[in-house]
Amino acid sequence: MSIRQMLSYIFENYPEATKARWGAESEMFQKFEYGFKELLQDLPLVQNNSNLSVKPSTGKGVWAGVPWIAFLDKRETDSITKGMHAIFLFREDMSGVYLAMGLGITEFKEAHPHTWPSVVETKVAQLRTRFGYLTASGFEVGPGFDLRSKTARGRSYGTGVSVYKLYERDNLPSDQEIEQDIAALLTAYSDYVQKRETPSEVPLVVRESTPVVQVEPTLGDVVTHFASALKESHIWFGDNHQDLVRSFMTSLVTKRFVILTGLSGSGKTQIAMRFGEWLGKDRSLLVPVRPDWTGAEALFGYEDALLKDDNGRRAWHVPEVLQFMLKAARDTANPYLLILDEMNLAHVERYFADVLSGMESGQPCLPNLKPEASDGLWRCPEGEAKRIAFPRNLFIVGTVNVDETTYMFSPKVLDRANTFEFRVTRDDLQVDAEKPTACKPAPTRLANYFLKVAKDDHFQANRPATERDRLAAALQDMHDILADGGFEFGHRVFYEVLRFAAIWQATGDEGFESVLDRQVMQKILPRLHGTRRRLEPILCALGQYCHELKHDPKVRFDPEKVEEAQAKLKLSFSKVKRMTKAVRINQFASFTE
Predict the structure, then answer these.
(1) Number of Cβ within a 10 Å radius of residue 171
(2) So what's the pLDDT on residue 428?
(3) Is 63 found in the same domain as 158?
(4) What is the CA 541 to chain-centroid distance, rounded?
(5) In the chain, which end has fewer C-beta atoms inside a 10 angstrom radius, N or C?
(6) Is residue 229 assigned to a domain?
(7) Please, are residues 526 and 574 in contact by the beta-carbon 8 Å criterion?
(8) Which secondary-structure segment (H or E) carries 15?
(9) 94: Cβ–Cβ under 8 A, 6 or more apart, which residues?
(10) Which domain covers residue 49, as residue numbers?
(11) How far is residue 87's CA from residue 101's CA, in Å, rounded to a whole number?
């Protein structure tokens, strides 16, 4: 039985069930308190979060007018009477069910016996501001919540609700949409609890004098909002949607350069374009790379001898991309995105070298130019440096297709990026898919917080990943494996993987294997290419490590003969398996297929 089917069953059978005695012998009791609970416990986001538990209630001794089933984070609460919880609340007339963020009010009644209603109202108003971004996922705030209960107890459940979504009995959404909504709500809940663990979080039980304040968002807020905005734009990456978006944004925060590769039409350019729109109006630019880009002039322009100079100050030919980069450099408070579409149609090392160097070193590399009022020509302002640093608020996404017209990437380019592979499964091909539309801009506070963390070079030092040492040891093990074939990595990759891990953890609760899997896939495997003689032994050794998290050179391990489902690092092992098959068939393989 699916979640949707369970909701339908409860709507149809609960009223009749309440006419009989409450207790474990009732089929409704069994379905609700065991069957429904098990369905929710099996959700990936619940299974992967050891802090979450599911607690149902159809009453105690008698049937509840408003039955419920809640998600409780043990770091926050073990009961819906106190703390925050995510919850399904059924209307008493069984006309619908709410998925909501609830606040236990019993502790407020105890702390403020005479004024608790106003105190709760103040806290709920604060939480509505805190979770307001969930409206992008279809949740609502403010009036409209109605459990249609005849009892004071039933109505009291709605007192602490801050955001909610109603599923009407006769108009239930698909299981996919329900699971997406649960994921959005649980991500917001987990991020809230993590934030509360820091001393800066506003106390849950507020006093009458406590003002309503704007709480700084979290990276989880940022990811959830963009993932929901993509869905609104008709871009959906199936069951992997939330994790792909989370990894994409974590990668950009880790390092401002990301490469997207994979099947044509798989969504590479779409996610980049929509992310640019999400950052804000006129803060993104898509530039098709041309095969004749043979030097830095394609991006940085050049002094044009045919244009008039001014007292020795030469005028420049300034391409659109340079104008955009200069705009970003002079608006450092806001994030900008440059999209290089099909960036490997030309030799990346030739036209992109100055950008890579400038991003890495922080040294001035960008021509310092402004259009002059007198003639409109671009020149370096008098008395100013001829070059300025590459703007730290400018992010770059390159899309890649591989065919006979394109070029390979060198390790020095791949080392400076996270590389994503986009694939399309059978289940991703949905008949109800719609043409993508423009993405709504993010609230300024979310876009600016994204930029703030990206600029924080000490984030991973101040908030290191919980299992940083274990991750470092795994990277050292893989370094030894790669060194046998001359594919070992340096300090940059090691540093950026640890930074990715810290930022990934800040967006959710997943740990060591999740981080390592994504970074092997995005930072290690893209560097591998070559002939079968050189590459096959490395792939087999890496395959063993991805499968078992250890490497025994005495064991002959063949990735093609082992089931993917048993692998510790599933994404990476699946890719190693495909690369092994390719190198055996073609006598050559690379990351891009």
Answers:
(1) 8
(2) 75
(3) yes
(4) 30
(5) N
(6) no
(7) no
(8) helix 3-17
(9) 10, 11, 14, 15, 169
(10) 3-215
(11) 6
> For the segment 410-465, what is each residue's pLDDT rounded down to a tens digit?
877 888 899 988 888 787 777 777 888 999 899 888 999 999 999 999 999 988 99
| CA–CA gap between residue 524 and residue 502 (Å, rounded) | 18
Q: Which residue ranges in the chain fall short of pLDDT 70? A: 196-216, 404-405, 509-510, 593
Separation CA 278–CA 439 (nearest Å): 6
Q: How far is CA 283 from CA 226, 313, 568, in A?
A: 16, 30, 40
**How deeply is 316 buried, as exposed, middle or buried, from its count of CB atoms within 10 A (0-12, 13-18, 19+)?**
buried
* Sign of the torsion angle spanned by Cα atoms 5, 6, 11, 17: positive
**Local structure of 364: helix, strand or coil:** strand
Q: How far, in Å, CA of 465 to CA of 512, rounded?
A: 9
Environment class of 395 (CB within 10 Å of its CB; exposed 0-12, middle 13-18, buried 19+):
buried
Q: Cα separations (Å) of 98 from 7, 148, 439, 494? A: 11, 12, 27, 46
Give pLDDT tens digits for 370-380.
998 888 899 99
Distance between CA atoms of 36 and 27, rounded to whole angstroms? Answer: 12
Residue reference for tokens 């994790």: 243
User: Exposed/middle/buried for 89, CB within 10 Å: 0-12, 13-18, 19+?
Assistant: buried
User: Do 264 and 313 sit in the same domain of this protein?
Assistant: yes
Report the distance separating Cα 237 and Cα 246, nearest Å.
Answer: 12
Residue 486 has phi, psi (to 5 degrees) of: 80, 25
- β-bridge partners, 84: 103
Fill in the amino acid letter for 113: P
Residue 208 is predicted with a pLDDT of 41
* Residue with token string 């093609």: 560
**At CB < 8 A and 24+ separation, what contacts does 35-41 make?**
35/1, 35/6, 36/6, 36/10, 36/69, 37/69, 39/1, 39/2, 39/3, 39/6, 40/3, 40/69, 40/71, 40/182
Does 185 share its domain with 248?
no
pLDDT of residue 116: 76
Burial call 255-289: b when 16+ CB within 10 Å, e when fewer: bbbbbbbbeeebbbbbbbbbbbbbbbeebbbebeb
DSSP 129-188: HHTGGGGGGT-EESS------SSHHHHHTTTT--EEEEEEGGG---HHHHHHHHHHHHHH
Question: Tokens 């100079």 sit at which residue?
Answer: 309
Same domain (yes/no): 166, 136: yes
| Number of neighbouring beta carbons within 10 Å of residue 350 | 13
Q: Do the Cβ atoms of 329 and 368 come closer than 8 Å?
A: no
DSSP letter at 215 equals: P
Strand stretches in 348-392, DSSP E: 364-367, 370-371, 378-379, 387-389
Rounded to the nearest 10 degrees, the angle between the axes of helix 532-548 and helix 468-483 is 160
Are 59 and 203 in the same domain? yes
Cβ–Cβ < 8 Å for 496, 254: yes
Task: Give φ, ψ of 317 to 5 degrees.
Answer: -85, 120
Report the pLDDT value the prediction gives residue 325, as an integer from 0 to 100.
96
Question: Would 442 be classed as within a structural domain?
Answer: no
Domain boundary among the residues 215, 243, 259 is at 215
Number of structural domains found in the chain: 3
Q: What whole-number distance in Å separates Cα of residue 524 and Cα of residue 586?
A: 22
Q: Is the dihedral of CA 18, 19, 23, 27 positive or negative?
A: negative
3-state SS, 545-580, equals HHHHCCCCCCCCCCHHHCCHHHCCCHHHHHHHHHHH
